[in-house]
Amino acid sequence: MLRRPEFLALGYVCYDVRDEGLVVGGSAAYAGLLARNLGYQVAIFTSAASDFPFESVLRGVKVWVTESRRSTVFVNRRRGSRRIQFVEAVAGRLEVKKIPLRWRRPKIAYFCPILGEFSAVEALDIVRAEVVGVAPQGWLRRRTPKGLVVKTRWEELGEVAGKVDFIVASHEELTREEVECYVELSRIFVLTRGKEGADLYVRGAFWGRIPAVPAAEADETGAGDVFGSAFAVRYYETRDPVEAAYFAAAAASLAVEGVGLSGIPESREEILARLATLERTLWKAPSSRGVDYGRTAPELGKGYLR
Known about the structure:
Elements (H helix, E strand, L loop, with lengths): L6 E4 L3 E5 L2 E5 L1 H11 L4 E7 L5 H4 L3 E7 L4 E8 L2 E8 L18 E4 L8 H7 L4 E4 L6 E3 L5 E3 L5 H4 L5 E5 L5 H10 L2 E5 L5 E5 L2 E6 L12 H16 L2 H15 L12 H8 L3 H4 L14 H4 L6
Parallel strand pairs: 1-4, 1-8, 2-6, 4-5, 8-9, 9-12, 12-13
Antiparallel strand pairs: 2-3, 6-7, 10-11, 13-14, 14-15
């Protein structure tokens, strides 16, 4: 067993139903694989059926599975620009008290539920990471008796937001009033806007719009998960939310050019090359001027929010 993971993701892995059949997905899978490709020792705490293809899909990633009779299955459909989701099956709930003791102090913890499968409050009581990031999409939706996924409010927001380093959410998940609440409560809040980029807020103040990196989009599934994972890694390395956001935007632009997990950037160098296409914009960013994105955390750490 991995003694101490550097990157710990909490959330369901799942199947997405596509025309070609079942495709492996889930925020934890996207986030974990991206962190692995960036050179981190990764662990995922999840729940799935015994026949889930962990070994073939998540090579090099340690997985602790709460075995379930079923794996979670999502069906995604589009009506114009609107995505409609259905859930055909749901795995068992994640029992965070069963997180291995050796896994409870990672460098980075990334809470990324997809259907309310665990409590963030309970997880924070157990996991003591140097950086904690949250992608709350799974707490912002619920399943109706007919399987339709509908929006809901994250009831634990007030208890969690001030205790974690950052929150990343999509503009499709929150109303304007909810965005204002997230901004007020969060140390760092990132609102992703797809092709329009992402809005970055630091300590309740709007820093600015992070531009989207031009990409030949093939599949948007998982792009937000890659963004969040890349942000978590680069923020851990630099403690600079601006630099982390640009790095995450570049990673997400690569993710949409592949289908499913195949779009996840394979290396840091690939992201840096894509990031170079935004060079002129980057040098206008006050806290990013002159940054060499290939350097390591000890060389770059600024203690931005310490």
